[in-house]
Amino acid sequence: MEQTQPTGYYFAPPSHWPVVGSIALFFMASGGVLLMNSYGVGWIPFGIGIFTLVYMLFGWFGTVIRESEGGLFNAQVDHSFRWAMSWFIFSEVMFFAAFFGALWYARQYSVPWLGDLDNKLLWPDFAAHWPTAGPYRPPEFSAMHAWGIPAINTLLLLSSGVTVTWAHWALKKGDRSNLIFGLALTIILGVTFITLQAIEYGHAYSELNLKLSTGVFGSTFFMLTGFHGFHVTLGVTMLIVILFRSVAGHFKPDHHFGFEAVSWYWHFVDVVWLLLFVFVYWL
Amino acid sequence: MSTASHTHVSGALDDHGHAEAHDHHGPPAGFTRWMYTTNHKDIGTMYLWFAFFMFLLGGTMALGIRAELFKPGLQFFDPEFFNSLTTVHGLVMVFGAIMPAFVGFANWLVPLQIGSADMAFPRMNNWSFWLLIPAALLLIGSFFVPGGAAASGWTLYPPLVIQQGISVDMTILAVHILGASSIMGSINIITTILNMRAPGMTLMKMPLFVWTWLITAYLLIAVMPVLAGAVTMLLTDRHFGTSFFNAAGGGDPTMFLHIFWFFGHPEVYIMILPAFGIISQILPAFARKPLFGYASMVYATASIAILSFIVWGHHMFTVGMPAAGNLFFMYATMLIAVPTGVKVFNWIATMWKGEMTFETPMLFAIGFLCLFTIGGFSGLVLAIVPVDITLHNTYYVVAHFHYVLVSGALFAIIAGIYFWLPKWSGKMYNEGLGKLHFWLSMIGFNLAFFPQHFLGLAGMPRRIPDYALQFAEWNMWSSIGAFIFGFSQLIFLYNVIATIRSGKPAEQKQWEGADSLEWTHLPTPMPYHTFVTPPIVR
Q1: Mean pLDDT (whole number) for B348-372
Q2: Rounded to a whole number, what is the largest CA-CA distance in chain A?
Q3: Per-residue pLDDT band at B332 (split at 50, 70, 90)
């Protein structure tokens, strides 16, 4: 049997983090089920689950960071991470595709069909215009205006794509102060985006009477922008982690996949936002 | 980072370069071996045992269904519980038995067949497995909450599923967790195949099992998030006032069908492509000939995967899609017969003039070939819109998908277990019991499901605990067949356990015609860590 040299690929030793993560999700799911069905006691398992999940994330990612900084990851391991992150982002794209698909189906099919001749008997007064809250006792509401806060948010996220690239170029040149400065700017832009989004939601609920329960328009509007906002929040959290790591002297000009993974993710939420701006706010 | 922790983290499988030294490293002792493991063989074993347990559980539910349907009238269950049985039977078999069994095969075989020491991400691999446990607890636990388990059918259609109780939330969150497990498992498998192959193992030299899993993993990553989106919309429609599937708010229950089947149709190929891979390994081994048309097999698999994204509408010909939509989905569906036909042709051509012997894996593989083809043909029948309009929601559909999922996916899994068990356990199973298992399964399965074609053609609807008197005779035979099939699986369970405990030692190359790396390059029994130094493939 012919053999080559060992590859030096780092295979992780036994670890308890996966089981901890499973326990966390079990508690979160059980608590979530109880809470959604108005059993207040659900906060206890839900809280335990969240706490355990955060503990697991710190522990597991901490281990990976120590391994990376300890020089255990060779080029092949790095390559694995790149494949994995790309496929993970592809799965996220497909998740958003389901909700964009729902928006498209509602606008293209279900709403026009509800307004067609067949349904005149059932809903004589229903005019099938978008935005709509449906034919049954629709509340008075207004859609979000695209050229106010959403346009500002578009500028913020696009700029943050630039600042994170600025940080990346600095990292590749070994310019740590510009790396930290670029990252900090990106985080500030991200946090401003989330804040404006929260203000926009407040405006929607208090002045536009636009709510999650405002028919299919409210459903698609809040679920799409809400999941996007959640992803931005995750992205900001990840950016904060790599900011701390950059301050602590982690990453090298030729070995910084952790940084690149976060920037890929950040560009992904950026692209999703552009689609949201066009299809949810503008058109 | 301290030196001590460095030694610790690099302890399990490091880079000193002495493969022999590692052969003495056994697994760690105690139960934490299984909980904390990062070894692809251990994780594969856990997946397979989990799948077998869920298979027996889901099978028990199926026998409950068949007991109820043994004769007309209500025997044992009220209709609501009967519907819970059909629902959870489907979910358990799809997400708990068939899919985990194939992931178990992938864990065992992908690293061995491409000459890698392990999966690319061993810890995430273990998490993919351990996520199955909370999901299974939620799914099974839903039987014991007020209102009983979800009774909507495994497809979870609104509006019924919007109105049912707490168990639906448990089911939805179980699906979320299973989806996370599948996505992580698939990312791991794809990365392993793309990045961990031994020198010389080019893509077109990979065994077909590896190819089918590469494509399956791609399908999983593409559609599991869509399912997650669909069930999330169900959840918000149930509890947070959204109107995705509520016409009063401008939504449409049919929208759920579209999103669900955009996941659902690739999902059925997710459950059959790895079976194609297993069969494509077994038939050449026992025909003692190389696989006929290797490249066309790869292209056919990829074609089936791509086509699977544009045929979902054939599950919903009766919901009132525009005629143009129905026609498109009909023709697209029929197109799938082309690559599938290529595969069946290649398998037959592989056996043509081969020096065949008929050990248990080969019997199950030939059983697969005959019966899966029947399931494929009844699928073509159902693809024809005017025919489907009369057969929709009848037992003909039930017969069709059990021919592809039981005598297709499951027979391939059983064939694969018999084929690789000697390699995995280092011991040989009892051939006589294996053949008994095959013939009882074959007879029981066909007796259970072939008459369901007749029942469906005669108009018997699915998911109803009672039926008109003219359906009585075939239902009786179907139930008898189901019980023969179900109980013959206990022979399988006994055979596997007896093999592991006290089987005769197996040879390195137990099957003369087997030619993938695990047979040609590795001893039997295999060491705990294999291919620490990758082989050179020519």
Answers
A1: 96
A2: 80
A3: very high
CATH of the domain at A95: 1.20.120.80
CATH of the domain at B208: 1.20.210.10
Least reliable range by pLDDT among A109-118, B420-429, B468-477: A109-118
Q: Are residues B421 and B442 in the same domain?
A: yes
Q: What is the per-residue pLDDT for B186? A: 97
Tokens, residue A241:
């982690």
Same domain membership, residue B482 and residue B435: yes
Mean pLDDT confidence for A141-147 = 93
Cβ–Cβ contacts within 10 Å for residue B15, how many?
Answer: 15
Quote the minimal CA–CA distance from B170 to chain A in Å. 6
- Quick one: tokens of A186? 């990106």
Using CA atoms, how far apart are residues A93 and A96, in angstroms rounded to an integer? Answer: 5
Count structural domains, chain B: 2
Closest CA to B210 of B347, B115, B292, B117: B115
Check if B122 contacts A (Cβ < 8 Å).
yes
pLDDT at A66 (0 to 100): 95
Q: How confident is the model at residue A1 (pLDDT cuts 50, 70, 90)?
A: very low
Q: pLDDT tier at B2 (50, 70, 90 boundaries)?
A: very low
Buried b (16+ CB within 10 A) or exposed e, B167-206: bbbbbbbbbbbbbbbbbbbbbbbbbbbbbbbbeebeeeeb
Nearest-CB residue to A80 (from B13, B17, B191): B191
Q: How far is B259 from chain A (nearest CA, A)?
A: 7
Contact (CB, 8 A) for B200 and B538: yes
d(CA B264, CA B274): 17
Domain identity same for B215 and B294: no
Q: Could you tell me if A164 and A239 lie in one domain? A: yes
- The answer, yes or no, to whether residue B7 has pLDDT greater than 80, is no
* pLDDT for residue A118: 84
pLDDT tens digit sequence for B190-209:
999 999 999 999 999 999 99
Residue numbers in A near B36 (CB within 8 A)? 14-16, 18-19
Tell me the residue range of the domain where A134 lies: 75-282
Q: What is the dihedral of CA B273, B279, B284, B287, to 10 degrees?
A: -150
Which amino acid is it at A136?
A: Y
Q: Which residues in chain B are closer than 8 Å to A222, comparing Cβ atoms?
A: 242
- Which of B6, B14, B15, B259 would you mutate first to test chain A, the one with the most A CBs within 10 A? B15
Nearest partner of B58 among B396, B393, B392, B410, judged by Cα: B410
On average, the pLDDT of chain A sits at 95
pLDDT of the residue at B194: 97
Complex prediction ipTM = 0.95
C-beta atoms surrounding B250 within 10 Å: 31
Mean pLDDT for the stretch of residues B27-37: 87
* Cβ proximity of B89 and B462 under 8 Å: no
Q: Do B69 and B166 fall into the same domain?
A: yes
Measure Cα distances from A37 to A222, B88, B338 in Å: 22, 21, 49
CA distance A96 to B82: 36
Q: Are residues A47 and A172 in the same domain?
A: no
Q: Within a domain: residue A112?
A: yes
CA angle A264, A269, A274 (to 5 degrees): 125
> In B75-207, which ranges are continuous DSSP H helix?
79-91, 99-114, 122-130, 132-141, 160-163, 166-195
- The yes-or-no verdict on residue B523 having pLDDT over 90 is yes
